[in-house]
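Sequence in, structure out. Go.
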Amino acid sequence: MGKETVLFKSEEKREAREVALFLRELADRVEKQEIILRKGKEKVTLKLPPVFTLEVKAEEERSKKGKVEYSLEVELEWKPGGEKAEKLELG
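Output:
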């Protein structure tokens, strides 16, 4: 696969209630097909197509010292033009 460019990244500790509120707001914005991410002066706007790939992954990672860390990843993937691109026609 090609080169990956990170457009926005944020990692911070939050209480479960705050995370749930963020995810609810994110769900509303996914439904509207536009997500704006802001942190300080950094801002990224993502336009989502009507159809995309949803990937959900739960992981358990054990360090060599026996420490365990869990993660839950939710990823949305799409290509420019989306899955339901309109058919090109000559008029």
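Check: The CA atoms of residues 29 and 41 lie 21 Å apart. The chain has one helix and four strands.
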